[in-house]
Amino acid sequence: MTFSDTYSLFHERLSRWLLLSCLMAVGIGQSFIFTSLPPIGREIGLADVRISTLITAGAATFVVAAFLWGGIINRIGRVRSVIIGMSSYAMTIGLTGFVLQEALVKHLSAEQTYYLVFTLRIVFSLGIAGVLPSIQTYLIAHTDVKHRSSTIAMIGASFSIGMILGPAFASLLSSLGLTAPFYIIAFLAGSIALLVVFFVKDTKHVRQFVKPPKINWLTQPVMPFLCMSSLSILSMTGVQQIMSFLIQDRFQLDVAQTTHQLGFAMMTMSCFSILVQMILVPRFQLGVVTLIFSGVGVGVLAQFAFIFLDSYAGVLLAMGLFGAGFGFLFPGIVTAQTLLVKDSQQSRLASINASMQGVGAAVGPVILASLYQLGQLVPFFALMCSLIFMQGVFIYCHSKLRHVF
Length: 405
Known about the structure:
Keywords: Membrane, Transmembrane, Transmembrane helix
InterPro entries: MFS, MFS_dom, MFS_trans_sf
Transmembrane segments: 17-37, 49-70, 82-101, 113-140, 152-174, 180-200, 221-242, 262-281, 288-309, 315-340, 352-372, 378-397
Organism: Marinomonas rhodophyticola
Radius of gyration: 21 Å
Number of helices: 13
Strand content: under 5%
Structural class: mainly alpha
Domain Major facilitator superfamily (MFS) profile: 1-400
Distance between the termini: 34 Å
Helix content: over 70%
Number of strands: 0
């Protein structure tokens, strides 16, 4: 291997890990706010409902913005889109910390703080909504088709790691001050954005200056897989929502005990999901069919464990199986999507998929919490039926698209 080949390989790997680091940082930015904002909001006099609207507004903006980013990525380029998104992330998180700090020292009223943070959350979501589609499209363009599933799995794992690290960062860094996590995470995001500027180049992107023809996605063969993507995220976020209810009700625990046991359950689910996506899928180069069949099978086993195993060890086993099932299912669904569209449509597909995942994340907790009110086991029967339904849809699609998968 020549020096130029070695350098090219090193540069490609560096670009890959920098972009995956961006996803990890986005996961941190998305999750740490759930830990940091509520106590600070109460300290400055915001009602709990108003605090929740700050988070909801950001989620709703993400859904709309992600849908629109596909065309922008095609015009300005994938790397520029990442840089814009990460720069927006760094500035808005830092400014949010500054506004909250001013409110804590009484330089701003609670009302002024609410509207300023509300605006910053909107801008934050507008920016990061383009990061995931840009990175997914870049990595797909720079990866062989036979390695596509492992690439998608690494994307999911990187974001999941960030979601785990976010609350941990907030807890550890808050010892330096209530708003310290905002500044440090903003610095982290800004630093990664600068590294992307200097080291990540996209030689395969062709800008689209002419507006491409409209696509009726509802009639495209990829549409069932977009719905499956939304349903899988709905299931994940819904289970996270009801798990505290299940643990408290099943074992008759108080709030402190429930929080403690819930932490272990969530960690188990996340670790198994990351293990599958970072190790098993890349190691064995699993294809779409194997990934979706494995994901559904393990997911159904998880629902049986939730229903029939009454011990806390049973809950941990069920959460581990559920996380592993998601670790197989998610890259399988997204890989199938990318195989069903042309290269020129990848960024638009990725943005629509991110938007639909946002919808699933928003409605999942509401739907499963509502089902939980009907009975403790109702959500798990519903999830089992949804997984079997997804399997049926995939079998039908596979019979029609056997040449693709």
